[in-house]
Amino acid sequence: QVQLVESGGGLVQAGGSLRLSCTTSGTIFRSSTMGWYRQAPGKQRELVATITSGGSTNYADSVKGRFTISRDNAKNTVYLQMNSLKPEDTAVYYCNARSGFNVNWGQGTQVTVSS
Questions:
Q1: What is the C-alpha to C-alpha distance for residues 101 and 113, in angstroms, rounded to an integer?
Q2: Pairwise pLDDT comparison (71 vs 29), residue with the higher score
Q3: What CA–CA distance (Å, rounded) separates 6 from 67?
Q4: Is 39 helix (H, G, I), strand (E, B) or coil?
Q5: CA of 59: how far to CAs of 68, 74, 75, 85, 114, in Å?
Q6: Beta strand 46-51 with 57-59: parallel, antiparallel or unpaired?
Q7: Using CA atoms in the order 10, 21, 65, 88, what is the torsion angle rounded to 10 degrees?
Q8: d(CA 3, CA 22)
Q9: Is the pLDDT of residue 72 over 80?
Q10: For 32-40, what is the mean pLDDT?
Q11: Residue 93: helix, strand or coil by DSSP?
C-alpha cells in the first residue's frame, strides 16, 4: 500500500504563513504528478495546486499569487508554501500522487486560519 505522509498543518492568524510537506516512496514520487487538495466542512474536495514530474505547476485561482507548490526529487517530498492566509483557506489539506490511472491520497492535515 502506497503511503503519503503529510505534515505542517496547524493554526495560524490571517495573513500568516504555513508550509505543508508530503513524502512518499521514491518509486511513486518520481513518476507522479503531485498535488494538494483541500476540503472545508460541508464542501467538496477541491484542487489547490499540482506539479508534474517535470516541474510544471497549476494553481486554483483562489490561491494564485499566495501559494507555491514545489518538489524536492532528492527527498521524495512535495511542499505547499502558503502565504497571506485567509480564513477561507481553512480546510483539511490532502496530498495526492497521480501516475496514469493510479491515484493515492494522504491522510490529510488540518489548516485553520483565524480572523
A1: 34
A2: 71
A3: 17
A4: strand
A5: 8, 23, 23, 15, 23
A6: antiparallel
A7: -30
A8: 10
A9: yes
A10: 97
A11: strand
CA distances from 38 to 3, 46, 48, 73, 76 (A): 18, 5, 7, 23, 21
Neighbours of 32 (CB within 10 A): 24
CA dihedral of residues 15, 61, 109, 84 (deg, nearest 10)? -10
Task: Reply yes or no on whether the pLDDT at 36 is more than 90.
Answer: yes
The per-residue pLDDT for 2 is 72
Mean pLDDT of 5-17: 97
Q: What is the pLDDT, as a whole number, of residue 1?
A: 67
Dihedral pair phi/psi, residue 24, rounded to 5°: -145, -175
Grid-cell match 505543508, residue found: 20
In whole angstroms, what is the distance from residue 51 CA to residue 69 CA? 7
The predicted pLDDT at position 47 comes to 98
Lookup result for grid cell 501559494: 67
